[in-house]
């Protein structure tokens, strides 16, 4: 016994409840099957890699040759442009549709609902084909008073390139999905937050901008990250417009010349994977940024004694700046 | 003679066919603390929310500082207020909620300076100085840079009080401010409220803390089923309730 008997006595505790706490040193339980399964799986993976490296159909020299082919890297850039432009338009339109859906005005609500019904209810591939045929349906784009001679008129075919049509098609389809994501985010914020903001004299817009939207971002960002990654891959469908300069269509066209499709499929896949990985890193940092004030309780040590006394200030606390200042 | 801070004349509030307030008539004088007590569902909180125009009154008139709440009166017609004007009315009325409703993505200090800088366009430096002073007043000068999640319930509620005070309100409404707190944290919030009452703030407090009502209340109103059953000096009402329903309620909570 290492404990001082005098102290024990003064604490008024019987001897039996003051044992010596010796750390337990038990013999570790072995898990032989974990090792067996692990080794077997590693061997299998090694086999697949060795096999793939030697298999002629993959034609690795061609993969290396086309990976940084100018046509391919330009197509990769085009795919990135398609993704970014249609996502930006999709998000902005999605926010508008979500706010319309939550508005007390029944007409705004119904229009938003109808939009979602159409654009979520039909395949994006079909929509892209429709956009490709827009010039057949509407020969000209007119601005003016309806049923009167238009002030300005453009020929649709000249005004909208296939690139623009691809972006319009992808963006309008995306807006329908983003609207639901944004709506879920706005609804996830406790109603008390808006009430507190309004009780402080904020208007609807001020409460939205400073209180509701920053909090809903936590709910909105993860699925939006999914949407961006999904969009990157959906751009491979723009061949339906037909727009042919994106990553997949371009590599497919090159393969059609060389009669060797497999290495070019690998080239396209590696590029898609590369962009997806970058997007995932970006998403990680965005999520961290909007997680301010939630979770991370472990970052501050909170001594339980601080509740003692009423409004007393305990000097033993860590300095307040040790909080979430990043 | 001084005009009252709050004057309610036959205030009625309905949710669909459910009449929650059935003609509330009362006045709160400047600098007074009025405690609203009663069983849950009696309409106390709804009445408080009407004063702040978070709910719209269906009948009767409600005046804060002699200004009609929620409507504009012209001739014998009432006009609904534009949301912008309603927001302006709320600026001068502070409200503290049962569930605190602090903004979780802002630190304590950011919570306090948000409305002054955004709504009143107070320069940031001035708002920060005033915010620090207010947080000091509620005993939280060492918690300014903490997020609400890192504060105890009692501390959060004190931040909420400081946040409401930052708008320099002429009237403070408390909606069961200690009901969501652990018993040992109630005292620290009541202490802040007592100090505030002493400083001359006009307060309406919906509460079940009869000790608080007895100590700092200038008047006590007992509500049940949407009507004022009994009112008067808190010490008198609590010691000698005259109405049966008041007696029955007090025997349960005291």
TrEMBL record, chain A:
ABC transmembrane type-1 domain sequence ranges: 76-283
TM region positions: 33-53, 74-102, 114-138, 158-179, 262-286
Membrane topology (UniProt): Multi-pass membrane protein
GO cellular component, one term: ATP-binding cassette (ABC) transporter complex
GO molecular function, one term: transmembrane transporter activity
Record keywords: Amino-acid transport, Cell membrane, Membrane, Transmembrane, Transmembrane helix, Transport
Cross-referenced PROSITE patterns: ABC_TM1
Record-linked InterPro entries: AA_ABC_transptr_permease_3TM, ArtM/GltK/GlnP/TcyL/YhdX-like, MetI-like, MetI-like_sf
Swiss-Prot/TrEMBL GO biological process terms: amino acid transport
Location within or outside the cell: Cell membrane
CDD domains per UniProt: TM_PBP2 (cd06261)
Protein name: Unannotated protein
The species this protein was found in: freshwater metagenome
UniProtKB/TrEMBL annotation, chain B:
Family annotation (SUPFAM superfamilies): P-loop containing nucleoside triphosphate hydrolases
Any GO molecular function: ABC-type amino acid transporter activity
A Pfam family this chain is assigned to: ABC_tran
UniProt xrefs under PROSITE patterns: ABC_TRANSPORTER_1 (PS00211), ABC_TRANSPORTER_2 (PS50893)
Domain ABC transporter residues, every copy: 6-250
Protein name, entry field: Unannotated protein
Organism: freshwater metagenome
InterPro entries the record matches: AAA+_ATPase (IPR003593), ABC_ATPase_HisP-typ (IPR030679), ABC_transporter-like_ATP-bd (IPR003439), ABC_transporter-like_CS (IPR017871), MetN_ABC_transporter-like (IPR050086), P-loop_NTPase (IPR027417)
Record family assignment: Belongs to the ABC transporter superfamily.
PANTHER family referenced in this protein's UniProt entry, alphabetically: AMINO ACID IMPORT ATP-BINDING PROTEIN, PHOSPHONATES IMPORT ATP-BINDING PROTEIN PHNC
Transmembrane segments: none
Keywords: ATP-binding, Nucleotide-binding, Transport
Keyword GTP-binding found: no
């Amino acid at each position: 016994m290492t404990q001082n008997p005098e102290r024990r006595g003064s604490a008024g505790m019987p001897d039996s409840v003051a044992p010596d706490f010796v750390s337990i040193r038990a013999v570790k339980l072995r898990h032989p099957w974990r090792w067996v399964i692990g080794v077997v799986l590693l061997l299998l993976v090694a086999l697949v890699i060795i096999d793939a490296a030697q298999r002629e159909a993959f034609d690795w020299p061609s993969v290396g040759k086309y990976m940084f082919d100018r046509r391919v890297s330009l197509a990769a850039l085009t795919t990135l442009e398609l993704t970014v432009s249609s996502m930006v338009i999709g998000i902005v339109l999605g926010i508008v549709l979500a706010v319309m859906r939550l508005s007390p005005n029944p007409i705004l609500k119904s229009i938003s609902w109808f939009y979602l019904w159409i654009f979520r209810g039909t395949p994006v591939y079909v929509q892209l084909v429709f956009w490709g045929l827009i010039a057949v349906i509407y020969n000209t784009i007119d601005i003016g008073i309806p049923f009167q001679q238009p002030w300005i008129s453009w020929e649709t075919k000249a005004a909208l390139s296939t690139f623009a049509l691809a972006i319009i098609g992808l963006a309008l389809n995306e807006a329908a999905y983003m609207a639901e994501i944004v709506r879920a985010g706005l609804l996830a914020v406790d109603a008390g937050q808006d009430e507190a903001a309004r009780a402080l004299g904020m208007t609807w817009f001020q409460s939205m901008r400073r209180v509701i939207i920053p909090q809903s971002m936590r709910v909105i960002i993860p699925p939006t990250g999914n949407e961006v990654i999904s969009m990157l891959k959906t751009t491979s469908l723009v061949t339906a417009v037909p727009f042919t300069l994106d990553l997949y269509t371009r590599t497919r066209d090159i393969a059609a010349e060389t009669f060797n499709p497999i290495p070019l499929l690998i080239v396209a896949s590696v590029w898609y994977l590369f962009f997806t990985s970058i997007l995932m890193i970006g998403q990680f940092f965005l999520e961290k940024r909007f997680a301010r004030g939630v979770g991370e309780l472990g970052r501050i040590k909170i001594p339980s004694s601080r509740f003692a006394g009423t409004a007393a200030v305990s000097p033993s606390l860590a300095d307040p700046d040790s909080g979430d200042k990043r | 003679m001084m005009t009252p801070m709050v004057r309610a004349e036959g205030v009625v509030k309905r949710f669909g066919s459910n009449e929650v307030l059935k003609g509330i008539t009362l006045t709160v004088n400047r600098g007074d603390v009025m405690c609203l007590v009663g069983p849950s569902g009696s309409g106390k909180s709804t009445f408080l929310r009407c004063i702040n125009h978070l709910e719209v009154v269906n009948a009767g008139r409600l005046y804060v500082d002699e200004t009609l709440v929620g409507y504009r009166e012209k001739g014998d017609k009432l006009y609904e207020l534009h949301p912008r004007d309603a927001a302006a009315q709320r600026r001068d009325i502070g409200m503290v909620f049962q569930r605190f409703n602090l903004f979780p993505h802002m630190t304590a200090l950011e919570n306090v300076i948000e409305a002054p800088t955004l709504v009143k366009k107070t320069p940031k430096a001035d708002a920060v100085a005033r915010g620090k002073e207010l947080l000091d007043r509620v005993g939280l000068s060492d918690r300014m840079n903490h997020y609400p999640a890192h504060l105890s319930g009692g501390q959060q509620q004190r931040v909420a009080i400081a946040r409401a005070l930052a708008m320099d309100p002429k009237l403070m409404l408390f909606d069961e401010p200690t009901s969501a707190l652990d018993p040992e944290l109630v005292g620290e919030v009541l202490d802040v409220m007592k100090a505030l009452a002493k400083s001359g703030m006009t307060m309406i407090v919906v509460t079940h803390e009869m000790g608080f009502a007895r100590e700092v209340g200038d008047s006590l109103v007992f509500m049940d089923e949407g009507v004022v059953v009994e009112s008067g000096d808190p010490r008198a009402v609590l010691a000698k309730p005259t109405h049966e329903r008041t007696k029955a309620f007090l025997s349960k909570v005291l």
